[in-house]
Amino acid sequence: MSNIYRALIVDDEPLARNIIKSYLKRWENIEVVDECSNGFEALKSVKEYKPHLMFLDIQMPKVTGLELMEVIDDPVLVVFSTAYDQYALKAFELNAVDYLLKPFNEKRFGDAVKKLIQKLETGEKSNQQQINSIQEQSEEKLERIVVKKGNKLEVIPLEDILYIEAQDDYVMIYTSDAHFLKAKTMKYFEDHLPPENFIRIHRSYVVNVEKIKQLEPYNKDTQLAVISKDCKLKVSRTGYKKLKELLDF
Description:
Blueprint: E1 5-10, H1 14-24, E2 30-36, H2 39-49, E3 53-57, H3 65-70, E4 77-82, H4 89-94, E5 99-101, H5 106-121, H6 128-137, E6 144-149, E7 152-157, E8 161-167, E9 170-175, E10 179-182, H7 186-192, E11 198-202, E12 205-208, E13 214-219, E14 222-228, E15 231-235, H8 237-247
Parallel strand pairs: 1-2, 1-3, 3-4, 4-5
Antiparallel strand pairs: 6-7, 8-9, 8-12, 9-10, 11-12, 13-14, 14-15
């Protein structure tokens, strides 16, 4: 008897979800365990049902498919769907992550499913690493940061961020009233945050320049960026030079 694989469908359009469900009916070894209209529902569903497969729309309101994948810890193989062929599809191809370009027919869908099942049967449980590579290679600047708080998603507007601190293979993102751990590198944020607002002032810190109240000397080669009375961040010589160029002082 062949394995039964659990599938999750995530798309904000009911019609798109229904099409995928109808196409999956011919696959006796795939069971649709849930369908979700947004990333908030999907995160809970992944935790509850532990799907093997996920059919995930890229463009969704509030949280995109790629943003959702940033915070999912459970292994799952993903096929993305999108209505926009300009949406970095070359990056998906280069990283061997399958995608469905809407509107797709049953044959194209079947080809994607066959690939997924083949991967599952050879022991592959996740394509998270390839998805991470797509995000790293993207030239698009971030407009917000999605984090996980407990079992829930939280969307942080960039203007709420005070600074980001290196924490080994993670970063800690600080706002005025909370902080969030995220599995991303400092280099990723240095490359993907808008450079007119965020500067890497030190190997350990990327700071929102609008939150700097003043600079004060610390020692011969180091300044301190004063965020608040209780928060002062070291500024390296290189970081100080970047601040001078940006703020023109």
